[in-house]
């Protein structure tokens, strides 16, 4: 009896082994390629093509060959830049789902400081330089146009090479409360100039309260230049 059972067990083992070997497995490289192409499609709105690094899957992971195209989607809340998590689904038979991690690097020209500057420094064009940087790590944003920083002041001291963003800058007050100003009232082809006094601070483009010195009337006027505000006639 024992002599009969042993050959049967060997035959059964060989049969199962050949069945596993015959099952076609999903190539990890095909999965990485599918994820890369998906993330590239999500980056078409960018002005420069990103660098995409898809993390390798565990070499021990064996998945049945998918009989239908792989379905790729981003996890809820996942960004399209920086570290990205994607869901890879096979809806064929047998169905399976795995998760893939990738890093999407986007390089752009960013405005940075040439040298260290103290707090409250008014920035000039010579203080700035454009530098190509990976921007997904710049969570506070960045500037790509130096003119967006020229004429503004630093909120705090910064080191040379620091990427600038709007949170680090403040627009200097062009008019301060109590300043004597010229009120320019314009309507069509007509304009009138009147003497006024600023009742609040403001930067260029701000609406501030201004008192007409002659009439004593208080109006809202827009700062258009140093010491000059404008209001409709």
Count every beta strand, where a strand is a DSSP E run of 2 or more residues: 13
Rg from Cα: 33 Å
Shape summary? elongated
State the end-to-end distance. Answer: 114 Å
Order of helices and strands: HHEEEEEEEEEEEEE
Number of domains: 3
**Mean pLDDT value:** 87
Kindly estimate the percentage of residues that lie in beta strands according to DSSP: 25-35%
Determine the structural class based on helices, strands and strand pairing: alpha+beta
Number of helices: 2
Low-confidence stretches: 1-21
Helix content percent band: 10-25%
What does the main sheet amount to? Answer: 5 strands, mixed, barrel
What does this structure look like?
With 233 residues, the chain is an alpha+beta fold. It has 3 domains: 26-105, no CATH class; 107-170, Antifreeze-like/N-acetylneuraminic acid synthase C-terminal domain (Type Iii Antifreeze Protein Isoform Hplc 12), CATH 3.90.1210; 180-232, Roll (SH3 type barrels), CATH 2.30.30.760. It has helices spanning 2-22, 28-41, and strands at residues 51-54, 71-74, 82-90, 96-105, 107-113, 128-134, 153-154, 169-170, 180-187, 190-198, 207-212, 218-225, 228-232. Strand 2 and strand 3 (82-90) form a beta hairpin. It is elongated and about 95 Å long. Mean pLDDT is 87; it is low at 1-21.
